[in-house]
Amino acid sequence: MKAKEFIEKYYQKENSEKSLLKIVYHLFIEIQTIGEQRHAQTNASFAAIVKEQNKKWHAILNKTGFKPNSWFIDFVLDKIPELASLL
Fold first, then answer.
1. Which residues span the domain enclosing 76?
2. 8-state DSSP, 86
3. pLDDT value of residue 15
4. SS (H, E, C) 47-82
5. Is residue 69 within 8 Å of 17, Cβ to Cβ?
6. What domain count does the chain have?
7. Rounded Cα distance, 85 and 16, in Å
């Protein structure tokens, strides 16, 4: 999904932080989908996908008026710590 689509589907201004956390989760889930589509098998290929998703995360923050933060990368590294040296 594109950043705009994530915002339209999950973002609610009145629950902005909760909405952003939901977006972080769904961006993370999308990593697996993209990995399957691209037949990703190595940590390096998944790290590249994570970097793309992080760019999308920052676009979402920009479009919703939030300052850049590391919520997405922090979430990914909590779930997949072996990517730390590649990000």
1. 3-86
2. G
3. 87
4. HHHHHHHHHHHHHHHHHHCCCCCCHHHHHHHHHCHH
5. no
6. 1
7. 31
